[in-house]
Amino acid sequence: xxxxxxxxxxxxxxxxxxxxxxxxxxxxxxxxxxxxxxxxxxxxxxxxxxxxxxxxxxxxxxxxxxxxxxxxxxxxxxxxxxxxxxxxxxxxxxxxxxxxxxxxxxxxxxxxxxxxxxxxxxxxxxxxxxxxxxxxxxxxxxxxxxxxxxxxxxxxxxxxxxxxxxxxxxxxxxxxxxxxxxxxxxxxxxxxxxxxxxxxxxxxxxxxxxxxxxxxxxxxxxxxxxxxxxxxxxxxxxxxxxxxxxxxxxxxxxxxxxxxxxxxxxxxxxxxxxxxxxxxxxxxxxxxxxxxxxxxxxxxxxxxxx
Length: 306
Description:
With 306 residues, the chain is α/β, with parallel strands linked by helices. The protein is built from ten helices and 14 strands. The strands form three sheets. It has a six-stranded mixed sheet with strand order 6-7-8-3-9-10, sandwiched between helices. Strands 2-1-4-5 form a four-stranded antiparallel sheet, with helices on one face. It has a four-stranded antiparallel sheet with strand order 12-13-11-14, covered by helices on one side. Helix 2 (90-100) packs across helix 3 (105-118) and helix 8 (235-242) runs antiparallel to helix 9 (271-281).
């Protein structure tokens, strides 16, 4: 069942069309990737969902009902532009934001102490934000975003400023939040992260939704019947046997442990016969389809090549 539905949303600023009749449906309990190049309209859509700005037309539904002003308390938003007050102490500021989200000072303090301990940052409580690195400030803002346990979380480039270890820590926390019932909108340019954490994606380009679906289904749907075979035996005999049966794309260094060959098979029905032919000619060690990465799909989609 969907938690959030965006229906025919459009938004213009002066003569610029930021969103053009965009629709998408975000399943409950999923990590949903919102992708697109700079200026595509992602941030505008996020701001509309957060009621920071209003659409010119279209409707946002939360739990099947039009989004209302009071629904923002059910949303946690970590923007790409960081919003901590530099001269306030970290703990004092975190308490302030938590109370804005409806938590009592007592509950906010208890939850913050728990999360600060979990992240190993207890010593930051009385530091000023100016004393923190970008990554440290990002951890604090992540905690503030999730502290009131909202059912919808929106992260805009959440790994910006993080080293690989802390980025992985944050990925694990996002997955735990999903597993505990939260729904996550994840906006990023990092396609590797999309493959690691996202269940579904929407790709917005030039203000329009040009691609939506489950990540695995999209990757498989845009495969090009390219396969890679690792084998022991004569490369010359195999290439001769495959000539006119399929297209030979590339092979590996002859000094490798196994020979490797990448081939294109024109249609699905020919895969079985090609495998049989290879097996009759050489010793197959592995045979697998080469599935395009989300990065490859992203580039082709934006270029209009899908």
